[in-house]
Amino acid sequence: MDAPFVRNELGFDERRDLFCNWDEARLMEADGTMAVAAHSHWHHAVFAKPEYTGFHAPGHRSRTFDRVDFAVPWGLPAFAQRPALLRRAFVPDPQLVDAIRALVPQDKASAYAFFQDSGKVRELEVLVEAFAATPSGLGKPESDADRTARMTRELSACAATLADELGHPVRSLCWPWGAYCDEARDIARAQGFSVFFATTMGPNPPGSAAHVHRFKAKDKPASWLLLRLFLYSRPWLARLYAKMRL
């Protein structure tokens, strides 16, 4: 728990966090002190636009939730990313993906060796630059229908898995990174979710189920928690305090 980084045999650190399992989740609920809420099925990001910085290559991984809702090959440009339930995705050109797979080895050790060779990296840069110069560019935004289908898959799989594993429907959803759009919320409601947690701070008076504020629990004394509960249980004071913390 306190040492999530594991040394890869190739010489770099990868983050591999531990998580509770379904038996533990069921036991916590059965004890009556905890309730399990949803947090999407995969906690994915999506590519946001064709701008990129570097390439996807084996190396140090510092974040737990850094997966993209795309079959990312080694060598794909590292396109800008956004939370998957926030907006439309940018979809790389399939021909670009095929060309990258043909150039860059796809097993981790060989891909790592590829990126240690500056000449090979330059070949990849030239390949991507050639695609970027064509009329179709490096890809295109997904269609409205594809966006709706993607968000529906994510949220329906989340609801179904929780109901199957816990034995009851789950009504609360905590948005990944606190980010969502109106369409995602409508889809979530259709899947049975009715309470939605964001990451912004503030009060939660009656009628706040569509955007529930929250604050981080920290390794602080009980007095710290009691003070926050005092602040956030008073709407006018909570709004003032939240503004001060921005």
UniProtKB/TrEMBL annotation:
Signal peptide: none
Record-linked InterPro entries: Glyco_hydro/deAcase_b/a-brl, Polysacch_Deacetylase
Top-level taxon in the UniProt lineage: Bacteria
PANTHER family noted in UniProt: POLY-BETA-1,6-N-ACETYL-D-GLUCOSAMINE N-DEACETYLASE (PTHR34216:SF3), PTHR34216
Protein's name according to its UniProt entry: Polysaccharide deacetylase
